[in-house]
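User: Run a structure prediction on this.
Assistant: Running it now.
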Amino acid sequence: MRAKEKKGGAYILFALFCFCCGLMAGRLRVSAGEVISIDANRRYQGMNASFAKGYTPSVRKGEMDLVVPFQTDLPLKEDCLSVKISFEREENSPFHFKNYWKKVKRGKRGIYLYRCKVKLKKDRVNGQYPLRLIVSAQTAGETVEQEFTVYVEITDGRDFTPPEEGVDLKKEEQWEMETDSLDKEAETEKKRQKPKVRIEGNSLNGEFLMAGESAAWRLMAKNCSESQGIWNLKVTLISEDADLVFTNTSWYFSQVKAGGVMDLSQNISVGAKTAKETAVAQFLFDYEDEGGENCQMTETVTLRIARKQKAELTNISFPKSVYEGDTEPFSFQATNVGLAVIYNAKVRFEGRGLFAAKEIFLGNLEAGEAKEGEIPVFVGTLDMEEGIQDEPEQSGDQSGEHGEKYGETLGVAVFTFENEQGEVTEQRQEIITAVQKPEVVELKVQEEAPETNQWWVTVFVLVILGLLAVILWLIARGRRK
């Protein structure tokens, strides 16, 4: 008897202990309820109403789209909490029992928005069913766990009918397993068809960025999925080219609907001394699909760079005064003073009354390269075209624009070259000269004196020579004596 009393007392003490533990557990739940709560006043994307106004998850094509906004005033570790669904294995439960555990990151306004698509059974029965959500988070030094219940209204199923006697439960279980297998295959297929993001609307596609200048870059990205949206999209621009400067290298979009477009436009600058002809910009897309799974994609854009051409004519030489009928040289030096190659460089000379014999073709000039040239220029009159006089010479003064033959005229040196795209640049330099009337030089020829007969001079010279010979003879004779 006493043994039974002792045993009964032990049972009482154990019951009291369990009761106290229950009270303590109840207090912990109350404490946890103060840490995490549902934002019942606002409606978020995918919700038909706020919780305060009777939100119910939507059901479409055998899936229930569940959206629950959690909030807390305490800082959580890594700014995230974990949510899982605990199913009640009721006989008529419309839910497929599987793991829907998911980590939820803190979003705008401090909201932890939990999104989940729950598979429904094909033979689901209409009615209202509770769905238990277990939320856990880690605060400073402790882990908090809390339970929430969301009621789901099923209206697209069949009405409840009592089960018939003699139903083979094993066949029902086998059918359930086959259905789960098909759902897993469908889920795998869905994972294979994750929403893709692509670059579209590139305004610099096929265009050139000019070195040393800035340009507006219109760039769009698109969610190519026709049925799935994406969430928490972060776009990062990566470029290893130090000569490219971007005004923006990262973007964030909380949600992009199916087929939605994101604007990534900005300004881009290129260094003036860059030697590259192309540069690569890489875009990294990091986002979540509708199932909360993380997705990453990379798109690469190639930018074409052109260096600005700069060339000039120097050391130009042409007389300030020329005479009709003469041919004078026009000399010059063409210099590439830029960083880009110039192509098909040419120099020609033209002007009223001045007719160049040819056009000089210099070809391509590398950066810093110079080439010299000379063009013979025939000097005509101001009223001549193509070296032929328009009118016969008239007497009297010639006046008027078309009547004058001599005077000042304007010569022009035309320097042309092309860039890599075949675009032509033309430079013109003016040269002022004066066309003068040719000088007439008279040659005076001195007339020769007429020849005269001077025989007497010869006789006189002979007489003198004869006298000298006699004198010399006499002197020699005297010396002998």
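The two ends are 218 Å apart (CA to CA).
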